């Protein structure tokens, strides 16, 4: 079977979406020649507290961010579920929907290090490749299970992600972006200017709707 160019999948709470999400995804799209990057906002994140903003508000911000970036689209499937958003469920569905397209799940190194805590994590590579954003020159201390996974599945050849639909791990050396949504919410709550930390239309949306203000518990 001739495979189509791979697509990227970036899931997250996106509360709010910011450059720490977007910049690594842009670099992955360029480095791997991804046909598109799908932004998949969670409905009920299994590993953290409930989002500050509603699903509708977070979806609106993600849509604004996608519109600013060529090749980025929004996938709403997890918002339609009434149960926790497990990555494995989304990857199984995409693997079935796209029989001729490799799927690359984009994640940070912190997520890779914590992978053994994920629901059915051993099955992820049965349905996708893992593309991990790393800091150049940083050698993390991998847990034994993750080290074993890398030994069996890591590739240095990005073309493997084009030749196969799933099963490989590729470590992407990205420009470091030290920004978390928690830190950004604190900045917004203090009334500071978020310019250049998130797309301008997202900043405008936050301001227009009065999101992340101290009066709402920040």
From TrEMBL:
The protein's role, per its UniProt record: Catalyzes the reversible adenylation of nicotinate mononucleotide (NaMN) to nicotinic acid adenine dinucleotide (NaAD).
Top-rank EC class of the record's enzyme = transferase
Tell me the PANTHER family matching this sequence.
Answer: NICOTINATE-NUCLEOTIDE ADENYLYLTRANSFERASE-RELATED, PHOSPHOPANTETHEINE ADENYLYLTRANSFERASE
Which key words tag this protein in UniProt?
Answer: ATP-binding, NAD, Nucleotide-binding, Nucleotidyltransferase, Pyridine nucleotide biosynthesis, Transferase
Keyword NAD attributed: yes
Q: Which family is this protein grouped under?
A: Belongs to the NadD family.
On whether Cell division is a keyword of this UniProt record, the answer is no
The encoding gene is nadD
In short, the EC number is: 2.7.7.18
SUPFAM superfamilies, alphabetically?
Answer: Nucleotidylyl transferase (SSF52374)
Q: What pathway, per the record?
A: Cofactor biosynthesis; NAD(+) biosynthesis; deamido-NAD(+) from nicotinate D-ribonucleotide: step 1/1
Q: Which organism is it from?
A: Aeromonas sanarellii
Q: Name one GO molecular function term.
A: nicotinate-nucleotide adenylyltransferase activity
Q: HAMAP family this protein is in?
A: NaMN_adenylyltr (MF_00244)
Name of the molecule in the record? Probable nicotinate-nucleotide adenylyltransferase
Catalyzes what? nicotinate beta-D-ribonucleotide + ATP + H(+) = deamido-NAD(+) + diphosphate
Q: Which residues form the Cytidyltransferase-like domain?
A: 9-185
């Amino acid at each position: 079977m001739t495979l189509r160019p791979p697509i990227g999948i970036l899931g997250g709470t996106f509360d709010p979406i910011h450059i720490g999400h977007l910049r690594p995804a842009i670099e992955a799209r360029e480095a791997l020649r991804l046909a598109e990057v799908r932004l998949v906002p969670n409905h009920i994140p299994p590993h953290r507290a409930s989002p500050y903003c509603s699903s509708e508000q977070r979806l609106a911000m993600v849509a604004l961010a996608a519109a600013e970036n060529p090749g980025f689209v929004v996938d709403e499937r997890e918002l339609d579920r009434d149960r926790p958003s497990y990555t494995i469920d989304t990857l199984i569905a995409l693997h079935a929907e796209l029989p001729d397209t490799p799927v690359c799940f984009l994640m940070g190194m912190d997520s890779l290090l914590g992978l053994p805590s994920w629901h059915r994590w051993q099955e992820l590579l049965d349905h996708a490749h893992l593309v991990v954003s790393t800091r150049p020159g940083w050698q993390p201390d991998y847990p034994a299970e993750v080290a074993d996974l890398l030994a069996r599945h890591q590739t240095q050849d990005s073309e493997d992600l084009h030749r196969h639909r799933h099963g490989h791990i590729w470590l992407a050396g990205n420009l470091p972006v030290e920004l978390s949504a928690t830190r950004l919410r604190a900045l917004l709550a203090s009334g500071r200017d978020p310019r250049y930390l998130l797309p301008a239309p997202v900043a405008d949306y936050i301001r227009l709707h009065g999101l992340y203000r101290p009066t709402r518990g920040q």
